[in-house]
Structure formats: C-alpha cells, structure tokens
Amino acid sequence: MFFRGRDKVQCIYISIILRTARVIACTQSILDSYTCTLITAGHRFVSTIWLTSVCIAGVLLHLSHRVISDSIVNMDAATGLVFVVVFLSVYTLLSRTRQSKTTTNRKLPPCPPFCLPIVGHLPLLAQRDLLETLTLQRQKLGDIYRLQIGRTTVVVISSYRLLYTAFVKNADIFSDRPHTVFLELCKDNGIILLNGPRWKNQRQIVLKNFRHLCARTTILETIIHKQIHRFHDNISSLDGCAVDPKQLLIDVISSVVGEVMIGKIFDTDTVKFKSYVEQHNEVVHLTAKAVILDFLPFLRYLPVDLFNHARVEDLHQKTTSFVKGKIGEKLQQSLGEGEPRDLMEAYLKTSESELDDQVTQTVSDMFAAGLETTVSTLRWALVYLTQYPDVQSRLQQEVDQALPAGTLPSMADKQAMPYVEAFVMELLRHSDVAPVGLLHTVNCDTYLDGYFIPKGTTIIPNIDSVLKDPDNFESPYEFKPERFIDAEGKVFKPETFIPFFFGKRLCVGEQIARANLMLFLTSLVQAYTVSRHADDTEPVRGALNITYCPSDFKVCFHKRDVTHQGRM
Fold first, then answer.
1. What values do phi and psi take at 147, rounded to 5?
2. How far apart are alpha carbons 86 and 74 in whole angstroms?
3. Distance from C-alpha of 309 to C-alpha of 185, rounded to nearest angstrom
4. Rounded to an integer, what distance in angstroms lies between the CA atom of residue 132 and that of residue 256?
5. Element (H or E) spanning 453, and its range?
6. How confident is residue 179, by pLDDT bands cut at 50, 70 and 90?
7. Which residues of 477-490 are buried (b: 16+ CB within 10 A; e: fewer)?
8. Looking at residue 416, what DSSP letter applies?
9. Is 108 exposed, middle or buried (0-12, 13-18, 19+ CB in 10 A)?
10. In 3-state terms, what secondary structure has residue 485?
11. What pTM value is reported for the model?
12. What whole-number distance in Å separates Cα of residue 145 and Cα of residue 138?
C-alpha cells in the first residue's frame, strides 16, 4: 500500500534521502559537507543537480525497494548505481538545456561528430597527442571549430588571421582568463590567471620592471653570466660522461629567475631554495594534470582525491610561505634610491601595490613561467644540436669569428652573429614549448568569422598551428635556422612568428627569455661540442604537460680546444 498520513510520508521521504546519501557519501556528515560546500562556493548549477539527483534517486529506490526488499539484491549497491545514473542524466539534460537557450538560431562553429553525454569530445582528445588531434580537426573543420569538453564549450582558433582578429583587434573581448581550480587555490591572486583592473595593475608593474632591467643590459647579463660560469663548472666536472641535462638546467635557470624576481636574497645553493624549486615544480605539474576538473567540476566532490588536490594545497602553502619569508627579508633591507633592481623591489617602491598574497602569487607566477619555458626550450636546443651536427658546426664557426677566445657573449654581440640569432628563432618556432598558450574566455557574446561565440566560451589559441603552417613557413617540420636570414645575410622576423603570442596577453618575460637563450647557447657552443650518448638510442619525443617538453635523454659535453683569436 502507499503512504497513509502526512507524518509517515515525511518520515519515509527523509529516510529515502538519508539512505541514498549514506551510500554516495559514505556518511551523512560527508554529504552535509559536500552540499554545504557546493552551495557556499557558488556552484548553484552543480548543487542543483546534486540535490535533484538525490531526491529522484531516493524516490526510485523507495519504489524499487517495495518490490525487491525481500530479494538478495544489495540495496546499498543499487542505491549507488541509481544515483550515478540519475546524476549523469540530469547533468547532461540541464547542461544541454542551458546551452541551447543561448545559441538558438545562431550559427556556431562546426564541431566533430559523436559528442558523448557528460564527457563530450574528451575521448577524441585522448586518442592521440593533443597537438596532432587539433591539427587533424583543423584539416577537417577549418580554422575555427568547436569542442564540447564536459559542460564547457571550447572554441579552437587556428589561423594567424583569426588569432590576430580575436586577440589584437578584439582584445578587450578575448583576453580574459576562465575561472579555474588553480585560481581558487591562489585565492584570485597572481598575474597569469587574473582579469580586470587588478590584473592590469600587476602587469604594468611587472612590464615596467622587466623593461627597465632589459634596458640596463649589464645588470641582466651579470646575473646570467654568473650562472653560465656555474653551468660550465658543473659540465666540466662530468669529464665527458653522459648526463641528463634537465637538472643542470633547472639549477642555473631557477637561480637566474630567482634573482630577477627577488634579487640576491635568493641563496640558490641552500637546501631551502632547492626544496622550494622542487616543490614548485611538483605543484605546477600536479595542477596541469588536474586541469580536467575545470571541465568536469563535479569530479572535485568525489570522496576519493583522484587529482592530489590535498597534496597541491599543502605544497602551495609551503612555497607561498617561502616566498613570503623572502619578502619579509627584503622589507628589512634598505631599498636605496634609483630604479628597482628586481621585481620585488619594484613592488616595494610602488606605494599603491598590494604587499600581500597578491604580490606573493605574482612572484610565484613569474617564477613558474620563466623556469618551465626556458628549461624546456634549452632542453630542445640540446636535442637539435645533437640531431643536426652541421648546424652546431656552423654556430661554432660564427661564434669563433665573432668572439675572442674565453670571452663570454653579451647581447651587443647579437649583430655580429646572425646565424646564432636565427638558430634561437628557429628553436622557438620548432620546439614551440607553449603551443596553445593558456586558456582564454570571451567576456560577452561575440562573433568571429561569422560564427557566434557565446559569453563564457573557453578559447584555445592554437599557436602551434600558426608556427607549423606551410603557408607561413616552408617545410615547417624541418629545422632550418636559415629561413630567418634574408638574401643580404640579415635576420628578419615574419609577422606570423608568434612564439610569445601577441595582444594584451603577450608574454611579459620575452626579452629576459631571449637573453637567457642567446647567452647560454652562445657560451655553450663556444666552449663545448654536444653529442648524444652512444647507448641512448631512443628517439626523443615531445609531450605536452605544462609545456611541450622533450622526453628524457642523455648527452655528452666535449670540451673544445679553441685557440682562435676572434675579433680584435
């Protein structure tokens, strides 16, 4: 019989919800925590689905319980299964309903077929290397196309013309960053993922300081030269033995970036600094793996921590504490007169800047960006030097003619070494360590190339497709530094050469990155010949993590016997 009496109905309904909750969240307290977290965090959409699913699943289970209560069926397992099915069904239905309301009768960019419930095109992206997939879809669908990843609509832009239209001509619309899990971890601080007036203020401070640092080249060169000496000392101690160069590069580049950020207060030989670098790298890589949470946010509320969120929070707290400690030490120093000597000093001399978590996160952001990209690019440089010995020989000949023996290069020597400069440009183009940059979002409804893009759509700028487009660069998958040298022997820069992107999100550290690459590589080929270890025969392949980096490999550094006099 069905329920009789109002009190009995209420009691049964409550017991149904509690029974469902017990299986899904293990205990009532966990469900209460999940529900409160969802609502207080502002995730109304997910919380609505969660509560609706609990209620629907509860009713279904009560009806089924009346039929199978005397059977051997495990009701706890049935409860969990019903809840999962209902949750996913409601999630898909409401997601598509919300999307259809904003796109009715408007032409959207084309998308691949077979968009699955819940995950969308995620299986398509997981089939092969992401860059290969994006290239293949461009060939099928055109320069602008759409993907559905979870409940997030993503538009991929793949041509220079459309990227320029979006990020330069319409920069105010396309330059925002989407809300991410990592931004929540940073408490809406930093510079890389921030939007609005606070982001503009932080970017202005960083740009001003970096431009000043690069204008006074002797300061930056002194910082880099110190680490070049250290790098060569470490190489020399190997006595020609094979080594994976990754850690060698991390040690010296982290020291350069650290001194540019906070100054000489970074004692890069201490255990604390090395621990900071290791923890920082782990945070970056764990966060990169957890990017799926931005597209399937309900995974965050599973009872099991599949994406090491607790570990990331712990590491982030430790790295933040380290930087804050260094800021405290900096505050105790006399700043003196004149221009700031590092980024932290620039903040301390800017009265309107916020000397709090915002500054700490900005320093951490810049440290991560500078370290990851530069180390990955230099590792690719070593790969190319070993793969193309004729290129390495030509570099050495030019450096030998341009520099006196034993003299470290400076940025002023660039004019006398066009092939070295062209090598660096081809290195940046071919390796393309940031092939899709960071995600963007549109802050209002807009159109691009005749297609409607709703507000909140995530945008992927496919920079790699521009740098590997045969219409922009002949034989794009060949490594040819001479492509950037004209008939007169001078270096030229095509407008489609955008490894640092453009528009309002142009990489603020471009000049510092170029200086690192130019000086480290020139001094390396000047003093050493690099070769692949004979036993290391595995081909080096690229993989997209936080950057597009090569797989592990070993090289040998052979000291050159240079007796030339060079220029006089």
1. -125, 150
2. 18
3. 10
4. 34
5. strand 451-453
6. confident
7. eebbbebbbeeeee
8. G
9. middle
10. strand
11. 0.81
12. 7
Residue with tokens 């691009």: 448
> Which amino acid, 226?
K
AA identity, residue 545: N
Written as one string, the DSSP assignment of 122-181 is: HHHHHSS-HHHHHHHHHHHH-SEEEEEETTEEEEEE-SHHHHHIIIIITHHHH-BPPP-H
Tell me the sheet residues that pair with 556.
Answer: 531
Whether the per-residue pLDDT at 504 is higher than 60: the answer is yes
Where, residue-wise, is CATH 1.10.630.10 in the chain? 183-559
Of 159, 165, 155, the closest CA to residue 143 belongs to 159
Write down the architecture of domain 183-559 according to CATH. Orthogonal Bundle (1.10)
**In degrees rounded to 5, what are phi and psi of residue 348?**
-65, -25
- Contact between residue 224 and residue 292 where contact means Cβ atoms under 8 Å apart: no
- What letter represents residue 146's amino acid? R
- Helix axes of 418-431 and 357-387: crossing angle, nearest 10 degrees: 110
pLDDT per position as a tens digit, 131-147: 999 999 999 999 999 99
pLDDT digits (tens, 9 = 90+) for 427-475: 999 999 999 989 999 999 999 999 999 999 999 999 999 999 999 999 9
Q: Which of 421, 431, 502 is nearest to 468 (CA)?
A: 431
- With a pLDDT cut of 90, the percent of the chain lying above it is 45
Which of 149, 11, 152 lies closest to 457, judged by CA?
152
Q: Which residues of 35-58 are buried (b: 16+ CB within 10 A; e: fewer)?
A: beebeeeebebbbebbeebbebbb
Mean pLDDT value across residues 218-226: 90
Nearest residue to 66 via CA among 129, 16, 26: 16
Q: Are strands 528-532 and 555-559 parallel, antiparallel or unpaired?
A: antiparallel
The number of C-alpha atoms within 13 Å of 290 and in the hemisphere containing its C-beta is 24
Q: What are phi and psi of 293, to 5 degrees?
A: -65, -25
Dihedrals phi, psi of 234, to nearest 5 degrees: -65, -40
Tokens of 310: 């607790």
**3 state SS of 529:** strand
Could you tell me which residues come within 8 angstroms of residue 385 by beta carbon, excluding any fewer than 6 positions away? 391, 392, 395, 525, 530
- CA neighbor of 550 nearest in space, from 559, 541, 563, 558: 541
CA angle 376, 404, 388 (to 5 degrees): 40
Q: Please give the pLDDT value at position 33.
A: 38
Task: Give the mean model confidence (pLDDT) for residues 16-20.
Answer: 48
Give the three-class secondary structure for 560. Answer: coil
CA distance 215 to 294: 39
Q: Compute the distance between CA of residue 152 and CA of residue 118 in angstroms, rounded to an integer.
A: 10
Q: Which phi and psi (to 5°) does residue 455 adopt?
A: -55, 135
507 labeled binding residue: yes
Q: Are strands 542-544 and 458-461 parallel, antiparallel or unpaired?
A: unpaired
For residue 357, the Cα-to-chain-centroid distance in whole angstroms is 21
What type of residue sits at position 163? L
pLDDT value at residue 78: 53
Q: Taking residues 341-355, report their average pLDDT.
A: 68
